[in-house]
Design a protein that fits this description.
alpha+beta; 30% helix
Length: 145
């Protein structure tokens, strides 16, 4: 017979904990990936840009901005935009068009019950064999340059 003073674990706690662990591990895999990202592909360059944002490595993120599209911007402009929420990224599609691309991503921003998902299109351009982010990419910081 069970002691009535011993706390009982709700039946849903273990499956919920396992589901949360799977989501967290999946999110880490999406951001980190198992292989090195290739900046000679639009998806690889975008992944490296997003890794820089996720790691608060503003210099890394800045290296993947199109130098022709961000005159006057510096890595500190990204940092000063005030973005601090954790996020995960899920690639949805890539549309290529003669040296440019649009990559659609689902970004899940925040954690737990307060997280939300945003669909974001990243504009990419190929220059000298490498791909760069252009336009006003997420997180929006161009106003800070």
């Amino acid at each position: 017979m069970r002691d009535p003073t011993t706390p009982r674990i709700p039946q849903w706690a273990i499956p919920a904990g396992l589901a949360a662990l799977i989501v967290i591990l999946g999110a880490v895999a999406l951001i980190r990936g198992s292989a090195s990202a290739d900046p000679t592909t639009p998806e690889g360059a975008l992944r490296l840009y997003l890794e820089g944002i996720a790691e608060a490595d503003w210099e890394k993120a800045y290296r993947f901005l199109d130098p022709d599209d961000f005159p006057g911007c510096e890595a500190s402009d990204i940092a000063n935009a005030g973005f601090v929420d954790p996020f995960t990224a899920l690639h949805r599609s890539t549309r290529l068009n003669d040296g440019s691309a649009v990559i659609r991503m689902d970004l899940r921003i925040g954690e737990g019950l307060f997280a939300w998902t945003n669909q974001v299109d990243f504009q990419m351009v190929e220059r000298d064999g490498f791909w760069y982010v252009r336009g006003d990419p997420w997180p929006h910081f161009r106003w800070n340059c």
